[in-house]
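User: Continuing from earlier, I have the next pair ready.

Assistant: Great, send them over.

User: Here they are, in order.

Assistant: Folding the first of the pair now:
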Amino acid sequence: MSTTVTMNEAGLVQLPDAVRKLLKLVGPASLELEVQDDSIRLRPQAPVTESARLVRNQRGRLVIAGGPELDNDAVVQAIKADRGDRDEGMLAFRDGNA
């Protein structure tokens, strides 16, 4: 795939949606930049896998971007597990065992 992008005065370049979707990139993401002769090459720093997940803040809520779609039961199970972990941590802190 080849496309033309524009760089602004600050040196910022926006990757087109089609490129981000093709590489399964969700921002923010770290890219490795390599200059070779008169070319620039960008590569995702870590291999992007189908199961890669990224937690990000979206309108004040933490959401998981990427990875397989979760059904309602899996989401409820994950929330309960997270709450249980937090409760254990807070009790340990209160009891001086943290």
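And the other member of the pair:
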Amino acid sequence: MYLFTKTTVWKDHLLIKEEINFNILEILNREEISLARQIRNLYGQNIEEEMLK
């Protein structure tokens, strides 16, 4: 979601953006609507272990 504000002060922009997002979440919660969350699992392997094989 893109948010545009009239302010050119970054700190103010972030505060306004945060307030809007919290208001949206409050409305969704009140309406019992849940959001899908992107879940990413990364599994790594030790490169040294591979080299020793």
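Worth noting for the second one:
The CA atoms of residues 46 and 53 lie 12 Å apart. The radius of gyration is 21 Å.
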